[in-house]
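Quick log. Single chain, no ligands specified.
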Amino acid sequence: MKKHIYLPLLLLFSLFSLNLRAENITIAGGAGYKRPLVEIANQYEKKTGNHIDAVFGHMQQIFSQAKMSENVSIIFGDKTFFDHSGINFSSYYPVGNGNLVLAWRKGLHLTSIAEIRNKEITRVGIPDANKAVYGHAATEYLKNAGLSAIVAPKIIAVSTVPQVSAYLVSGEIDCGFINITDAIGIQDNIGGYFAADQSLYTPILIQGGVVSGFENRPEVKAFLKFLNEKESIVILKHYGL
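-> predicted structure:
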């Protein structure tokens, strides 16, 4: 029985030429959407018998690897990142709207996001604003909410949303800006989270971009069709998309 293999970016890239089979497709996505996309891929394989290889990271990593490998057929992420990726896309498929949240570690009890100004909060995690859409959104939010100056000394920048989440779970940071999808995935291991005011950051439109040259492949069409079926919709709604 086949099993999914979700590999680190560089390792996956080195194995592309060895592992790809004609019936397989490779999808890629922002690290903050690993949970729902992996679950959808698992359901798709159970239903169809077709295999999905999946790779995740911050979007600059994803675009770089997609260009080098030339094997990634669908990329999932924020549409604004696609526009500056240097990759040609044949079409886009809406997946959902992304939502920024502030989550906090167990042991804390916040009543508003503004409390990150308090002296008790000393470490605030944020994804890389230049490479991760939620890092950019968090930076916008802090500026527009008038929190940038006071929070700046507390900021701990990391590459991706899951890294912020990992630090929250381990208690290495007090709070962190992540997407609601990851917050739902770790909610049993953190203190809680608040949604950020959506009027204070640029809307995040999560889409699946079909890389030019793959649009007519039957296995790609089959997976895109599955994204609109009940099994996928239930998963996306569960993760706040």
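The radius of gyration is 18 Å.
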